[in-house]
Amino acid sequence: MAVLAVDIGTSTLKAAVADLDRGLVATYSEEVPIERPEPEAAEHNPRVLWEVFQRVVRGVLAQAGEGLEVEALAFSGYLFGLIPLDRRGEPLSGVMTWLDRRPARIMPKLLEVVRPRELYERTGCPPLSIYQLAKLLWMKIEKPELYDSARLLLDAKGYVLLNLAGEAVMDLSSASGSQLLHSRRLHWDYELLESLGLDPSKLPPLKRSTEIVGEVSRDIAEKLQLPRGTPIVTGVFDGAAVTVGEGALGSGIASSHLSTSTMLRVTSSEPIVDASDEMRFQTYYLFDGIWLPGGAVNSAGVVLRWFRDQMGQLERIVGEATGMSPYELLSREAERAPPGSGGLLFLPYISGERFPSFGNQASGVLFGLKEHHTRAHVVRSMMEGVVFNLKIVGEALRENGLPFSEVRVTGGGARSRLWLQMIADILEVPVKAAVSCDAALWGTSLIAWKSLGVISDVKRVAEERFEPEVVVHPDEGSAAVYRESYRRFRRLLDAARQLFIEFSA
Question: What dotted CATH number matches 247-433+475-505?
Answer without folding.
Answer: 3.30.420.40
